[in-house]
Amino acid sequence: MEFQIFGIGILTWIVFLPIVGMLIVLLIPGDNKNAIRWTAAGATGLQLLLAVILLGIFDRTALGINDPGSFQFVEQFQWIVVEAVPWVGKIEILYFLGIDGLSVLMVLLTALISVIGVISSWSIQKMVKGYFALYLLLVTGMMGVFVALDFFLFFIFWEVMLLPMYFLIGIWGGPRREYAAIKFFIYTFVGGVLMLLVMLGLYFSVAYTNGAGEQVHTFNLLHMMNSANFVEGSIFYGVDTTWRYIAWVALFISFAIKVPLFPFHTWLPDAHVEAPTPISVILAGVLLKLGTYGMLRIMYPILPDGTVYFMYLMAALGMISIIYGALCAMAQDDFKKLIAYSSISHMGIVMLGMASLTNQGTVGAVLQMFNHGTITAMLFLIVGVLYDRTHKRGLYDFGGIANQMPKYTGIAMVAMFAALGLPGLSGFVSELFSFLGAFDSFRVITIISVTGIIFTAAYILWTIQRVFLGELSDEHKTLTDLTGRELLMFVPLLIIVILLGVYPGPAIELMNASLSHLVEFVNMAGR
Amino acid sequence: MAEHIIESIYRFLPEIALVVTLVAAIVADLVLRERNRHVAWVVLAGLAVTAILLVGQRGWNVSIFSDTLAVDPFAVFFKAVLLVAGLFIVLFSMKSRELEHNSTRIGEYYMLITGVIFGMFLMVGATNLLLMYLAFELTSISSYVLAGFTKTLRRSAEASMKYIIFGAVSSGFLIYGISLLVGVTGAVDIYGVRNALQAGVEQTAALYVGVIMIIVGFSYKITAVPFHFWAPDVYQGAPVTITTFLATASKVAGFAMMIRFFRISFMDSGVLAAPGFEGVVAVVPWHLILAVLAAVTMLAANLMALWQENIKRLLAYSSIAHAGFILMGLALVTDEGISAMMIYLAIYLFMNMGAFYVVMLVANKLDTEDVAGYQGLGHRSPFLGVAMAIFLVALAGFPPTAGFIAKVYIFGATISAGMIWLVALAGLATVISLFYYIRVVRNMFLVEPAETDGPVRYDVSSLAILVLLLVPVLLLGVYFSPIVAWAKHAVTMFGM
User: Fold this and answer.
1) Residues in A lying within 8 Å of B, measured between beta carbons
2) Does some domain include residue B388?
3) Count of domains observed in chain B
4) Low-confidence ranges of chain A (pLDDT < 50)
């Protein structure tokens, strides 16, 4: 399927619209703050519009994953080509974009969260120009990762996100922003170097024969998924070899840092607490999903043997993240830190569902990625609203907000119950699917993991009690309820959370074909 | 014979143009008023003519002056890189306040720079061991003078002194090693050495010592740990322009000579396949020595850079660390490794020059060379701050800058050659390097300037030079096939 605007494919538009916005922002004089904000809103708004169009015409039956023919909105051009010389074959790097059932929801999520982030950024006053320029660059990086089908391109988008994020936390963050920013940076950079080494190893291991009969080394992910393309004697040739396991572990760590999975999670609470609200929203809403997405897109199909071999490890780390994240969340007295730890817990559920290598578990995991993106974005916005008004985030600083800010409380309740996994809201469906799938593969681990739900219920109910119920202190009697701008960022998320809770069918249909193909492929190739 | 000489002179035109430039610079210095500017323009014009002549050498693959000097794509590649470096250094020098204030005989300065470039041109082409040594000395001796050119500054004089002493030691090692090699093989050019190695060498101990000494001699030039001691002090003490020159062009020329020496003699397929193979690699595992040298260099230099407070010193250690990354390519004994080195060197030139140029501009205006002096620079002069940040993240190897491409190729070649332990250490070194590069970026952007610090402004020509350096750093990050193809072509044509 193709869709072009002015002769340029829709995915290129979606990825590079923010960059266009960034260039315009850079040309606007710095003191014209509103023009800068509206440019950013326009760029991300258009991006969202295109993402919705994309969703409308997306073909739900196409498989994708490792089948080049059934990717949609494909754009494939040769980007870098170096002709063969006697001692090294032809080299090519592709500009290769396309989406399938695995990425389509992530594209929508990224576009949606980006717009909401811009609306939430309206209250940023410090160096507005620099802020939005970096923000838009970040959006391009995130979107690019979700649509890239060439490993080199994927890696570039992956790394492009790092610096903007470093500055956004480091310049516009809270009191300990420098520490948080450098910690985030170094963790992800380590992951990036590991990924780079595996990427290069794969590149030298994979060669396909093109039409002219030449051996071509390529970064094309789809060629890497085909085990017939591995050159005999190359480092990653074969099945279940030590080198392939090492590659799997390196890739797993580089993605697990982003998820973040226990024990690579320590950067997250710091980054979240220090980041300004919109950046926390982006971080929790989109960035964390890049890790699990990368595993499904790259690690699962390219190294299926390692995936099958290490599936218990993944499940165990998922389980630890669920329980440990929930317990840590319970111990926090900072609202933002609590949500940060709850993110770790909820991403653990994604990991557990994915690790099961069952259709149900994987569908649940990807749906949980989307739902966690929307729910946690709401939770961070909820903290942001209180923080904007009182400059406080302590859970014990509040009480009795419910009467003072009824609209706000209503929205907060929905978001928190969705995070808790209340039936009828979106979180329930995806958690249920993840656990059901996981139960097929690992009984004990799943049973232990499910107890995490109890802790989740505990910290969420306790939070509601501390913040929204009880006595309203005098200093909070002047608090105003949500403004129109704030409502604008909550309502779309609210609708999605309720809608997917009541009727998740369409979302599951979107990805079912691709994910069942992925699961089947990994199970077949890896066992 | 006469025909051969005439033919050789025709092939030698770029170098002759440099000599003419050198003489013209002396004359201009004597006769022209306002000589500071004018001599620089004369040298710039001379370098431009050299560049045009160099373009004419495309595709040539000959040996001139009775096989003492090669004019092949490899030499042309490096001459082009060195010429670009020379042009930028002259431009930098015209902008340097340090030079303007602390030296009286600026005409000689430009003349010496031309002389160094001439020496480097010979270094990249020399195939005769004696010519190699002479070219090496020509660049070294001119560099000693240049390092101490602002002689009224104590640190500059000290730098020059240290440089002379260490340089003399390295020359000693090199000439000693060459003597042993000549004695063992009976040949004075590297082709003769190759033939002798193919036939097999009897005095293996002498060969071993000779090769080690030659490696040590080269190691001083390319600043490989533990032969780097001179570099931080000299880089810190010399004028910024000369520091830039030493950290880029001088290293590039050293690497070029080293590559040619090992590629022709020790890496030759005949040598590697001949029974003499045991005589060379088993007795003298030079590639393993280089691999260890590379690993030690990149790890040690990156670690030492972490504690530097002076930005020139920090960049000095960074450039030592980069020498380690580049040296990996030669340890692989593959053509792929050599082409990766060439790509790295060309890219390294631009990003390192950019970083040093910002250092110079900042020193011009703010009179500081301390990392702490960069606090709030991104707020006081956004363009300068962003440019510096781009150069530094390029040095750290971030996409989509050219520095990433350089790392991709050198890491890739190492993986392809199967030296996984080496590439794993290189990955570790890269992570370490991030800390100190980002510390400067942090100072520029995350720390806000003091109230008293107003904006810092620069004239258009300074910014234009900066843009000229930024363009390749960014462009080669997203479109790098021309330089890759050029490097691979140059290696393929080697010694044919």
Assistant:
1) 80-83, 85-88, 91, 130, 155-156, 159-160, 162-163, 166-167, 170-171, 177-178, 181-182, 185-186, 189-190, 193-194, 196-197, 200-201, 203-204, 235
2) yes
3) 1
4) none
